[in-house]
Amino acid sequence: MVLLLLKRIGFMFFTMIVVSIILFMLLETGLTGDPATRVLGNFASDAQKESWRNQHGYNQPVVVRYAKWLGNFATGNLGTSIRYKGPVKDVLLPRLWNTAILGFWTFAIMIPLSLILGVLSGMKEGSLLDRSISIFGILTTSVPEFASAVFFSALFVFGLKWLPGTSSMSGGFEFKQLILPAMVLVVYDFGYVARMTRASMAEVMQSQYVRSAILKGLPYRQVIIRHALRNALIAPFTVIMLQINWLLSGVIVVEFFFAYKGFGALLLEASLNNDIVLLEACAMVAVVVAVGSQTIADIGYTFLNPRIRFT
Amino acid sequence: MAEKKDKLSTKRVHPGVEEMKKSLTEGKCSRREFLRTTTLLGISATTAYGLASKILGEDILPSLISTAHAGQKKGGVLKFGMMVQEMADPATYSWTEKSVIARHIIEYLVETGPDNITRPNLAESWEASDDLKTWIFHLRKGVKWSNGDDFGADDVVFNFTRWLDPKTGSSNLGLFNAMLEDTGEKDAKGNPIKRMIKNAVEKVDDHTVKINLKSAVLSMPENLYNYPTGIVHRNFEKEGGDFTKNPIGTGPYALTEFKVGEIAVLKKRNAPYWGGEVFLDEIRFIDLGSDPGAYLAAIASKQVDALYELDLTTLQAAKNIPGINVLAIPSTQTGVIRMKVTEKPFTDKRVRQAVQKCCDVERQLKIAHHGLGIVAEHHHVASIHPEYFKLPPLKPDIAGAKKLLKEAGYPDGIELTCNVGNTNGVWEQNSVAVLKEDCAKAGINIKINLMPTAQYWDVWTKAPMSLTSWTHRPLAVMVLGLAYRAGVPWNESSYNNPAFDAALDEAEATFDVESRRVKMEKVEKLLQDDAIMVQPFFRSVFTAVSDSVVGLETHPTKYYRFHKVSLA
After folding, report:
1. A166–B303 CB contact, under 8 Å
2. Phi and psi, residue B415, nearest 5°
3. Helix and strand tally (H, E) in chain B?
4. Pairing relation of β-strands B444-450 and B414-420?
5. In this structure, are residues B243 and B87 in contact, taking their beta carbons and an 8 Å threshold?
6. A308 pLDDT band (50/70/90 cuts)?
């Protein structure tokens, strides 16, 4: 068990190092344009650019620069944003927090909803309830976020006038402004998780041990909760953990559309504005979250499925 | 010289005013042209309106800018939907939005209103010498900076000196060319490096500043309302050179919160304001990103009270929302598809002329901007500019284009790439797409390189061919000086024609509208013949304002000013 944990954590760090090397090579070595021009702008003279390169160590060997860059990142020094003219940390952390709030409410609604409906659907495969839930899930998941965002805006903002059209929270946090972005994310994601839960549940319900338990005369509720559910949740658990990664990039569309000041919108702004320092930090944070959540998922499996624990 | 100095030291009426009176009486200039020119020559807007009324025998009410409306309420918070960008140095602003926020904190020497008439602001009056080469600005007394210091001539001298230092990187260099001299050196691109002429700006006393020009310029006061000419405190650089961190100003509002990409909050200062009472307690500039749909949704759900601009794609939808007024602003904003004369194949004039000959300006306006605007003639002077000289109308000439291409050594056609960043909307990309279609008829294959807005600003002065969106300027000579004079920072086509520079200098120096118009013929013709740009139309711009906003005046350059705006 300890070995497994160490392996997973070791792999996590290895992945992060590899991604950081790729990121550094792409953004810091001039492969995608001169960093000095990006920072100083178009009117900067060659002398100014050269002076900037000297000042910021851009004339040092790539390996030395990478080691410094990684060291700075590891110690929390994320640099200064070109667009925001301030420490990246000061810009990034509030944005990450905003996305966490949006993600929390999205998951708080989506996970119970999709698990319950998925389990109900999988329990009685082929029933009217199963078919209804499946069709609804396929429909919502097949509509892209930007389309459902337009639809919900047309309905709730321009039509019924129930909800605010944007979610910039410029006057402070207002839960009402969170409803539309969360609704779009829930609707898009719910069908996917529900369908996975349904498939997993249906498979478990066909398994011999569940049939034996039913034939043995155990109460149906006990069979579902004690025997079927635990095994049926392994696949949805994987999917849900993957949704954390999806959320970090998937929110870009929603945050852009509703002007929500979150991590996704920041990532987009950083790339559109050539803010390489901010882009690096955002990419590294996304990698840390992705690899971290997968490590947690891997460890989580071991509790859900003893077979993984002992192999 | 001493005699001239004495002459200028007392308030005088420029002889040009008499000539303008004569022109108006004889019907040689319009009322608007009379008002604009006489105010530039230093007489007050009220006097100018009075003179025009007397001459024309009509009662012309001075539509003074920022006039308080009867029964306006005090207090309240105005929420304005607009991008909030980094705005550390007012001298280097390259987006009007930055100046909209700054305009409430720092101020300009003059103010050009929505009627294109220039009025006093921090300068309470000005005088020009007969040859328009010497200007004296009398600064307003009793104006205080928000740190308690007195505003005065030192501040103005500091600002001019800073603008005209090439190290600052201010676009004002192109605007105040008559205050510059060549250093004899050239930059990396081969453009001459210029510096301010010694004593181009002089402090006469604590509240008087004298500007000495090497050539005559009529639009000197008007240039002082160009958006990067906001007057900062004389210690701006000593105190860090970052306006957002140290927002000292003479205006009625103070910057209390500023987050790039999110929000800027201005609160009414407690100290009495020299310009009279302002109504709003607070102005919030709310950044809703770059999606025009978000701005529409925000005003529809009353999250903002007014917008900086209504995109063409959301215009129709906005008209259908109750409680929202859509305002059209006549302007000379435009998209210039310019060709860099120093980059192949545009080094050959015939290639540039071939591209220009393919362009159907009527079709461009109709398709790319829904017919909302006026057609142009590839010289960046609009028919609504006072000095516009009408050249013969342009018709597409595909056969002529093919012939020129053949002569230039491209008998089988040519491949070109045009960069576009949609910095002001998708009409930019549509305009290039229409040109692509037109050019294909002559064998010119234009590849469209669509780039993110910010990346576009990295290449706008470097790319061989690209579409740049230019904002409105009340006088054509202002924009021509900024964009086409040899060696100025914003000369994106690297155009370098001494004959053009001389013709422009001459036009700038002529205050008589009729004579200036005649002189503009050469300027326009040179630009058109040298074919450095395809400039098919001037576009109308739009904004949306909620019913609850009182007194908001639109401005052709979108220089919004909320001093006399209130909430219902």
Report:
1. yes
2. -105, 130
3. 18, 22
4. parallel
5. yes
6. low
Q: Which of B95, B301, B319, B466 to mutate to test the interface with A (most CBs of A within 10 A)?
A: B301
Residue A225 DSSP label: I
> How many Å apart are CA B172 and CA B229, to the nearest integer?
7
User: Any residues with CB less than 8 A from the CB of A117 and at least 6 apart, and which?
Assistant: A133, A137, A190, A194, A197, A198
pLDDT digits (tens, 9 = 90+) for A26-73: 887 777 667 777 666 555 567 767 777 887 778 888 888 888 888 888
The pLDDT tens digits for A229-252 are 888 888 888 888 888 888 887 789
Note the maximum CA span of chain B.
Answer: 71
Distance CA B559, CA B225 (A): 9
How many residues are listed for chain A in this entry? 311
Cis peptide before B166 (omega within 30 of 0): no
Cα separation, B424 vs A257, in Å, equals 18
Sign of CA dihedral B516, B518, B524, B530: negative
Cα gap A113→B236, rounded to integer Å? 58
B296 close contact with A: CB closer than 8 A: yes
pLDDT for B33: 80
Question: For residue B182, with 0-12 CB atoms within 10 Å meaning exposed, 13-18 middle and 19 or more buried, which class applies?
Answer: exposed
Tokens of B327: 């305002």
Q: Residue B269 and residue B254: Cα distance in Å, rounded?
A: 6
Nearest to B232 by CA among B220, B222, B242, B218: B242
Percent of chain B with pLDDT over 90: 65
Q: How many CB pairs under 8 A join A and B?
A: 98
Report whether pLDDT(A8) > 50.
Answer: yes
CA distances from A172 to A166, A175, A261 (A): 13, 10, 12
Q: In what order do the strands lie in the sheet with B201-205?
A: B123-128, B134-139, B208-212, B201-205
On whether any CB of chain B is under 8 Å from the CB of A200, the answer is no
Tokens of B222: 């008007």
Partner A contacted by B188 (CB < 8 A): yes
Check A165 against B296: CB less than 8 A apart.
Answer: yes
At residue B134, the 3 state secondary structure works out as strand
In the block, tokens 């002329």 appear at B353
pLDDT tens track for A261-291:
999 999 998 888 778 889 889 988 888 888 8
Determine the pLDDT at residue A60.
83
Cα of B183 vs its chain's centroid, Å: 28
Residues B402-412 pLDDT 10s:
999 999 999 99
Q: Examine residue A306 and say whether the peptide bond preceding it is cis (omega within 30 degrees of 0).
A: no
Token output for B534: 């395809």
Query: Residues B247, B529: contact at Cβ < 8 Å?
Result: no
Residues of chain B with pLDDT under 70: 1-11, 59-70, 188-191
Q: Is B320 on the interface with A (CB under 8 A)?
A: no
pTM: 0.84
Q: Are B329 and B555 in contact (CB under 8 A)?
A: yes
Rounded Cα–Cα distance for residues A180 and A148 (Å)? 10
Looking at beta carbons, which residues of chain A come within 8 Å of B457?
42
Longest CA span, chain A = 85
Q: If 0-12 CB within 10 Å is exposed, 13-18 middle and 19+ buried, where does residue B135 land?
A: buried
Structure tokens at B335: 């998209």
- Distance of alpha carbon A64 from the chain centroid: 32
Cβ atoms of B80 and B306 within 8 Å: the answer is: yes
What ipTM, to 2 d.p.? 0.85
Per-residue model confidence (pLDDT) at position B9: 40
H or E element: which one contains B112? strand B110-112
What span, in angstroms and rounded, lies between the C-alpha atoms of A242 and A289?
11
DSSP B489: T
